[in-house]
Amino acid sequence: MGSKAVTFTAAQFLLLQCHVDALRSMWHSSYSYLLVLAVSKLNCLSEI
């Protein structure tokens, strides 16, 4: 019984870890997208 619970907890932890990594990469990509957007806006403003 005890070892089964430990295995289940380990599986849950690994799942959570994957989820966190996915969220982090998603956040990084959206952050770099916003950065590119801001830079292009600044370029447009400086050309006026």
Counting DSSP H or I runs of 4 or more residues, the number of helices is: 1
Query: What's the helical proportion of residues?
Result: over 70%
The end-to-end span amounts to 71 Å
- Whole-angstrom Rg: 21 Å
* Class by SSE composition: mainly alpha
Beta-strand content: under 5%
Low-pLDDT stretches are none
Q: State the oligomer.
A: single chain
- Give the tally of β-strands: 0
H/E element order:
H
Query: Roughly what is the average pLDDT, rounded to an integer?
Result: 84
Total discrete domains: 1
Global morphology: rod-shaped
Main sheet characteristics:
none
List keywords for this structure.
48 residues, mainly alpha, signal, 1 helix
What does this structure look like?
This protein is an all-alpha fold and 48 residues long. The protein has one domain (1-48). It has 1 helix and no strands.
Give a brief rundown of this model.
With 48 residues, the protein is mainly α. The chain has one helix at residues 2-47.
Topology (SSEs and partners):
Blueprint: H1 2-47
